[in-house]
Amino acid sequence: MDSSFLTEKFYQYLPQHPKQAMEQLLSLIPEAAVTHVQSLLSQSNLSIKITKKRLTKHGDFRRRVDGTSMITLNETSNPYRFLITLLHELAHFKVAESHHYRVKPHGIEWKNAYREIILPFLNPKIFPNPLCSLLALHMKNPKASTDQDFNLVMALRKYDAKTEKVVLYELEDGQLFYLDNGRAFIKMKKRRTRLECKEVESGRLYLFSPHAEVSIPHSTP
């Protein structure tokens, strides 16, 4: 798939290139969600871009100075994560379209819009249980990121591509681990919702998400 795929004013683009535009985006979501997503996007005047994986976010929404809107989404083999991110960002778009004054990015307006958009998708035919039940629970008071919902994150992780990486919370205190950039850390202790870790080279302390994926040294025979 071309990760630079960009829809230009999606609702105008579809009639011109229906197969090319739809197949590239809809191939990344659960098949049972296709009809609902097509309906949402056909009514939306925005650009959508699929990008390579970013470490700090799954997607984002921007309102340009010229008044147009863009959503960027990380390409992923996990259709449930991709769909949740798409709906999360579409809620931002809906708020931007309906509120012409400044509101909090993840305030009550966004929460209400997100609930309204995601409701038709809260179906075991789209999100298998227990993922569907956990997502419904999450939507009672949705967070700024699904990464803040530990149970939901762990349920989603089961559908990620297989990897040798481990989840940080599974490591013992004092255990060494590495980030993708090669920086080495030692897991120290839990502090409320984060894990305190010490960088080996500098000795500085950092806070990590408990479900951050990290690499550990391979044991020698």
Summarize the structure.
The protein has 221 residues and is an alpha+beta fold. It has 7 helices and 10 strands. The strands form 3 sheets. It has a 4-stranded mixed beta sheet, with helices on one face.
Written overview of the protein:
The protein has 2 domains: 152 residues, no CATH class; 49 residues. 33% of the residues lie in helices and 19% in strands. The chain is built from 7 helices and 10 strands. A 4-stranded mixed sheet has the order 1-2-4-3, with helices on one face. Strands 6-7-8-9 form a 4-stranded antiparallel sheet, with no helix packed on it. A hairpin with a 5-residue loop joins β3 and β4. α1 packs across α2, α4 crosses α5 and α6 runs antiparallel to α7. The chain is globular.
Question: What's the helix and strand layout?
Answer:
Elements: E1 6-7, H1 10-16, H2 18-26, H3 34-42, E2 47-51, E3 59-63, E4 69-74, H4 79-98, H5 108-118, H6 131-138, H7 150-157, E5 166-167, E6 176-178, E7 184-191, E8 194-199, E9 205-208, E10 213-214
Parallel strand pairs: 2-4
Antiparallel strand pairs: 1-2, 3-4, 5-10, 6-7, 7-8, 8-9
Q: What pattern of helices and strands is seen along the backbone?
A: EHHHEEEHHHHEEEEEE
**What Rg do the Cα atoms give?**
19 Å
**Percentage of residues in helical conformation:** 25-40%
Structural class: alpha+beta
Q: What general form does the structure show?
A: globular
Count of helical regions: 7
Major sheet, described briefly?
A: 4 strands, mixed
Intertermini distance: 40 Å
**Average predicted local confidence, pLDDT:** 84
Whole-number total of structural domains: 2
Q: Strand order, biggest sheet?
A: 1-2-4-3
Portion of residues in beta strands equals 15-25%
Residue stretches low in confidence (pLDDT < 50, at least 5 long) are 1-18
Number of strands: 10
